[in-house]
Amino acid sequence: MTVVADLYAAQPFWIWLAVGVLLLAVEAMFSTEWLLWPAVAAGIVAVLTAVGVRLGLPGEVAIFAVLTMIATLLSRRLIQKANPEGLDINDRDSRLIDQRARVVEAFVGGRGRVFVSGAEWPALIEGEAPAVGQDVIVNGVSGSLLTVRSAV
Questions:
Q1: How many C-beta atoms surround the C-beta of residue 3 within 10 A?
Q2: Cα within 13 Å of Cα(17), Cβ side
């Protein structure tokens, strides 16, 4: 432990850089978005110590904490602007709702198959069963089963 203390006394830049890199590595492993901003704050403190701003450990920790809080709060606002509430583009099932689908296998007993979004899906029909080749609208998704209604 004295080696770390001696290194900090001589070159605090390396300690803060190591903290930043360690936080960034953990963030890269887990993709939480919570450790990115402390890593950036540690990098800023490292740069401050490299240019000769020496505040001692308590002062540097205080700057690190304040920068972390500010960056985290600002990032939340930025993320909300970049990712507005709404459908998740990665949630294929919810994007199917209200899409047009084409009947590819006749509905027998209320069950058939439809083609939508580049794939065939088993489907349940609500109402009158359309013929093969006609369009239907997707009403809901339950696992791999679509609920559809006639598009007419």
A1: 7
A2: 10
